[in-house]
Amino acid sequence: VRSFKTRHTRQLLICICVIFGWIFLCQLINQTWDLSFVKTYIHMIFQFVLGAVLYQFLIYNECEEKAITYVIWSFVAQTIIEWLAFLIPKFHELINITKSAETIRIGASYGGTRAVALAGSDFFGLSAAYAIVLLIYWSRYNMIFQNNRILKVVLYVFMMTGTFFAGRTGFIGVLFAVVYGFFVMIKKLILHEKICFKFNESEKKIGKIAIVLISFALVVLVVLYFVNENIHNLFAFALQPVFNLFENGSLRVSSV
After folding, report:
1. Cα gap 151→144, rounded to integer Å
2. What are the C-alpha distances in Å from 169 to residues 37, 76, 235?
3. Fewest C-beta in 10 Å: which of 55, 160, 174, 249?
4. HSE (CB half, 13 Å, CA atoms) of 247?
5. Rounded to whole angstroms, how far apart are CA atoms 160 and 152?
6. Which tens digit of pLDDT belongs to each residue from 219-248?
7. Is 0.85 surpassed by the pTM of this model?
8. What is the Cα–Cα distance from 80 to 165, expressed in whole angstroms?
9. How many helices (H) and strands (E) does the chain have?
10. Would you say residue 5 has pLDDT above 90?
11. Please, which residues have CB within 8 angstroms of residue 102's CB and are 6 or more apart in sequence?
12. What is the chain's mean pLDDT, rounded?
């Protein structure tokens, strides 16, 4: 109950009510009375209540400051699940048990590159969540690999690949993270704070290994892009804005 009385919880509940009110007002003005959004709204309320209960559990165990870290690790796990489902057909079939026939059909229409996550929303909802997590990853509340910046970046890059399957909206989080980092740098320069670019020995060793592994992975993926249909479909979807920019000078995409 205490978690429902916090200021942030009340603000979030007010936002949900405002969204519902705005949708209802649009329905009233246009006189369309399309109630298909009600299901999504019910899901939103359910997730809100569940989130409040989980946060109360963290408060009870005096570890609410680790909430961001737990959320990030859950998206790392989600990314692993997406890759496994994409690469292993049997595992994909197992994941499909949790999905509706319509979700499976839509995922198949993308060449099997989407609807491979273990989530309530496999499309825009999941990609929007990835965008938020890819932004808050760089907040001071993230305690993952605080003493090793190289591992922190490698984990971020891996988690970012999850947006290949969820949707390109996730890359907006990366864009905002870059903008955030830029302003942090400007602030430090204005305040004459020290900006450290030196790496310790552990970071240097891991950095060298990471460069070799990432370079090898990129070469393999480039080769597979031309010889494997699934990999081709994956990158054709995930990097569609880039391909369109070089081919016809447009950033227009078919979906988010």
Report:
1. 9
2. 20, 17, 15
3. 249
4. 10
5. 12
6. 888 888 787 777 877 877 777 776 666 667
7. no
8. 11
9. 12, 0
10. no
11. none
12. 79
* Torsion (CA) 26, 30, 36, 38 in degrees, nearest 10: 30
The CA dihedral of 64, 73, 99, 107, to the nearest 10 degrees, is: 130
Q: Which long-range contacts (CB under 8 A, 24 or more apart) does 214-223 make?
A: 214/154, 214/157
C-alpha of 147 from chain center: 24
Q: How far is residue 127's CA from residue 163's CA, in Å, rounded to a whole number?
A: 6
d(CA 34, CA 26): 10
Rounded to whole angstroms, how far apart are CA atoms 235 and 237? 5
Measured in residues, the chain has a length of 256
Contact of 126 with 117, CB cutoff 8 Å: yes
Is residue 150 scored above 90 in pLDDT? no
